[in-house]
Amino acid sequence: MSGDNTTVIEGRNLKTHFEGRNGLISAMLGGKSETVHALDGVDLHIDKKEIVGIVGESGCGKSTLGMTLARMYEPTSGQILFGQQDITNLHGSKLKSYRGSAQIIFQDPYSSLNPRLTVEQIIREPLNIHRIGNETEKAARVAEVLNRVQMPPETYLHRFPSNLSGGQRQRVAIARALVLRPELIVADEPVSMLDVSIQAGILELLNQLSKELDLAVLYISHDIATVGYICDRVAVMYLGRIVEQGSSDDVMHSPLHPYSDRLMAAVPSIDATASRERVHLSGEVPSPTNIPAGCRFAARCPAATALCHTVEPELYEARPDHKVRCHLYLPEDRDLRPDLERPKAHPFA
Amino acid sequence: MSIEFETLRGTLEKKPPVRLQVQDLCVTYKSARGPMKAISGVSFDVEPGSNFGLVGESGCGKSTVVKSLMRLLPASATTSGKVLLDGNDVLAMNRQQLSRVRWAQIALITQSAMNSLDPVFTVGDQIVESIRAHADVKHAVAWARAEELFAMVGLPPERLKEFPHQFSGGMRQRAVIAMAFSLNAGLLLADEPTTALDPIMQDQIMSRIRDIQKRLHRSMVLVTHDIAVVSETCERVAIMYAGRIVETGPTHDVLNKAYHPYTMGLQNAFPKVVAKGEKKPPLISISGGVPDLANPPAGCQFAPRCPFATAQCRAEEPMLRTAGNSLVACHHMERATEFRRAALKAETWRVEETLQ
Question: In the sheet where A77-82 sits, what is the strand order?
Fold first, then answer.
């Protein structure tokens, strides 16, 4: 995929680990602090005009992935390619200039906008920081992005965030992200704080902007129904790794991994006549400080065998453009440990 | 001890489900900008042993309704109307009567379970305390009941000895649910009980609540913004807007044959998961925002956002009237069939946007 000029960003075997805090006494006794393996080997690429969804439970590393791609975090290992450029370890002014091309939209528009600045000042701030344009050009750019998010500048330019509704605030946050003309947008739960009646408008806007401005969008959400609406491709994460990846239609309607299967089955249906199979998944997600050997989902998977508890499966292309990290789908000839018992059948099929 | 425990269980299981009747409930908050009418004339009945859904967006007053049922509103709120629990008015009770009713007859699960447990006591001690406040039993008996409740929500009994911070978010929420069931109250108020949780945990907890409600034949008021959860859980539903009920009836009728344009708009905006290959209906948002309750518009509160509003809507407030199996507050509900067809088109709702 690299070298292909439509790929905007690509992460290769990305790992982002955090050092845990250690108490004074334990440090004096020579205790080691724990390492949190938030992101633990992820490969992902996003093309122009493409929206890729990341779903998974809290703590699975989906936000860390977004923050790492936007280089708010420096990855512990792995490589990030932005077009042809390696941006894995950029610092100083080069990092600043990269951040101009990779913008983030945060979850909570009530805390991501400075309440003391007007809409105009909020959107102009990135231009000041990156020293782009003179006064006339700045004013023109601010007006342009406000029009893009369907907020007429003449009405909203001089308002404060406190005079805006949640949906309007999120539109201002999107305008601020667009003003530097980025190529990548990381949208981290952009509609989860908004009411149902307005979230539709924000989703539609993101979709439209991605197509009109050639944007690559990483859409992070735990609301699977919204992912189905705007994403071209979806990756399911579990404990720092992608366990399934494919077109949103395939992943949502024919999930292969037992975990994705449960995740999709957990979405309540508005049509009460359609009987939905109840989800039962025992146990909790293991701690990211102490990752078990073998498949990370094995402890909660009813079909897990000795092989699953020993060898971690690779992300294997089980169907065309549909990858899954599960021993169920790995062909016999690629099995590295034929001495161990393999899982027989899909546990929830 | 085991005899005492059996006696406790016996009395708890014999508790009948409660009939709740809310009649013309009004709540007004004092604010710096003058009185804010948070709830205006809300009435509904919850039949014993049934689940009632209260749906609406933030600020529509659904949580205020729940708080007034438990008399948990701040002193700045004035309440009128009647909240009848098997005929006894909660709003007219004195402190002593009220503390006998709370938790024993009405139990509450709030949205943020993280904050409803005391960090300095073990979870077990907190459940035991709530049981012993209402039932005259020894500590060991109440502890045995707590173990039973933990098993019911799928938590291992040894974790009763742990403190809230040792629990994950999902486990704390389950502990709060266990606590709400501790005295087998006849009426459960669940205010967004699973909103803060991950999808798999959400579904597991909702199906657990449904199972317990069904098995023990309890009544429940479920407050949520998620119409899919209501559709799977509640027999009847009320849609709230700006402190009023705009449509209420059997869930199936309200969600499949809406008479109020707001209900239609809410359904259009709700993301659905369709079968493979089937075309997704477009997501359509309702432009504009909820009215300012300190300075409400004349006429129908939804009129400024309604694509079908007429001069009459902007002048006169509609009353709830019968339509099919539902009650609907819309001047033009006779035209509902025509509205339903038009409401499915994005253009219908876009017209309003240019006017805003």
Answer: A35-47, A7-19, A77-82, A85-86
